[in-house]
Amino acid sequence: MSMVQPLLEVNKLQTQFPTSSGIAKAVDDVSFSLAAGEILGLVGESGCGKTVTGFSILGLVDPPGRVVGGQVLFKGEDLLTMDTERLRAIRGNRLAMIFQDPMMTLNPVLRIDTQLIETLQAHQDISRAAAYDRALEALGEVGIAEPAQRLRAYPHQFSGGMRQRVAIAIALINRPDLIIADEPTTALDVTIQGQILALVQALCRERQMSLIWISHDLSVVAGLADRVAVMYAGKIVESGTVRATLDHPAHPYTRGLLGAIPALHERGSRLLPIPGTTPSLLNLPAGCAFADRCAQVHGACALPPPDFAVGHDGPSHRVRCWLNHANSPNRIADAAP
Amino acid sequence: MLVFLLRRLLQSGVVLLVMSLLVFVGIYAIGNPVDILISPEADQAEIARTIAAFGLDQPLWTQYLIYLQQAVRGNFGNSFVHGTPALALIVQRLPATLELACVALILAVSLGIPLGLWAGLRPASKSGRAIMGLSILGFSLPTFWVGLMLIMLFSVQLGWLPSNGRGATTELLGVPVSFLSWDGFKHLLMPAANLALFKISLVIRLTRAGTQEALLQDYVRFARAKGLRSARVVFVHVLKNILIPIVTVIGLEFGSLIAFAVVTESIFAWPGMGKLLIESINLLDRPVVVAYLLTVVALFVVINLVVDILYSLLDPRIRLSDQAD
Ligand SMILES: Nc1ncnc2c1ncn2[C@@H]1O[C@H](COP(=O)(O)OP(=O)(O)OP(=O)(O)O)[C@@H](O)[C@H]1O
Ligand SMILES: [Mg+2]
Predict the structure, then answer these.
(1) pTM for this one?
(2) Is the distance from the beta carbon of residue A187 to the nearest atom of ligand 1 less than 6 Å?
């Protein structure tokens, strides 16, 4: 291809958890790529596999869960087959992650300065004094007042929002090329959510950092990301630029998330919640997993849906759905005499 | 901190008082020491004189009050049997028991924590399973039986280790200890291992359970996401967290090590407090038994205090002055 190499390229990633009642396919055939400096929003309902996708990229899936297939190319190197020491050297250094629940991410028995400094010393030969200065600076950058005092504190002496800022400072301290932020604001109250969002956005733009922002809220992603990928039951069902995807959502699920399902046969449009609940990952149907919640379900949906470019905004806007697909068995059947 | 210590001191005083009363009444109920102390041929007058000499003709509560009065001045009475101060008898035997308990504790920690960590990090491996299997054995086998088997094997069959006594002792800061001389060390090894066996198993299980729980915590995953080396994740992030419950339990178990030393001391004829206690109970030597129990209670109080302080040092979320109740 003539395009420059993407920073991150995920190909057909598959992660499964064996459970007593079968294999849970938490991530199934997920592919996307991310250029340097780009922000991707990864969106979907609770339990659709967003966090597991993030953990799979960093090699942090807990056994017995396992990445069973695919590639995660970071600057052209596959993180999944890389030796552990090389992967360790990249984690927290070039590729960092912020977790969902700030109350749980910091070690309760270690001081903040220890937790910052060890992150520096794991990746570079730096004196304690120099590392301390960097830690001080890092706390300042995420908007923590009186950083010198706060460095000596323990996590329980911080509020949730402050802890998330500390976690962000830790993730950013080695100036990574890519950050995976796993719903870092869901556990916080609304005003703090806005502050954290603005902070991460500003730091990314300033440093040309790439960002994967995981969220269940499309509206947050709309204001933040360049591109968006919508996940449902372990699969990406639609992806594209924010403009194309939000202005011309092609998958009924995306439209559902947007809150407005255009009722094709009625005048105007109605606001509707998506009926039903997410399916169990243990026994997904062979066809479309969204079929039994979809208002536009039809015969073809019993077959595995095709993944194709819908044409809005060139080849980058893709959808995994039989609707509007040229070779839909229904269309062929309709066209037959 | 000061308030905490003062409150603790007061509580300890109450505990000691209640304890002394219970023990006093308990021993009184067991039997009359006069029956043992006086030869059967003694005439009535002699018996009366002995009873009066020991103050046994007074009603129980008077005896207790007299005892308390003396105890406050540091006088716990003379042993009926030895005729020497009861407390001095206990203090004389204390170092042997403490040495045994300390060595057993060190064995429990230095073997239990590494083995437990290993088993927690690799629960499915052969070595992990083997460690757990052995710890179940250590839990279930009775101490006295293991002690006898050790003697059979190492003293009788192999002839490597002596089966009784303390061996040669060396003075360390004025206290006689066994572990500094080769002979003493050989005497110490088997009883200490015997006493430690149960605690090693306990520490292994605690450490393994703590490790497995900690490994699932977000902070451990985050530590790995930061790119820390696994040695740092295990020995700093995991270990520092699991040490909190381990230190608590081990500290409290130290008291029971001293209490269970009674069995081990009897089997290995280790000249400690436990052996003295058994002898004194047999002879209804009331002052010695009471002094022993009060000493053990005092040791427990000190141990609990040390555990609380260690706990607050390990866990930054705990402040000693906050523990109001
Ligand atoms: N340790 C595990 N064992 C078994 N199944 C798991 C485990 N972790 C995750 N899963 C499965 O993977 C699915 C995806 O989980 P994941 O945490 O990625 O969801 P999510 O999209 O991040 O949801 P949320 O918005 O609630 O965070 C879950 O539905 C769950 O069934
Ligand atoms: Mg999640």
Answers:
(1) 0.82
(2) no
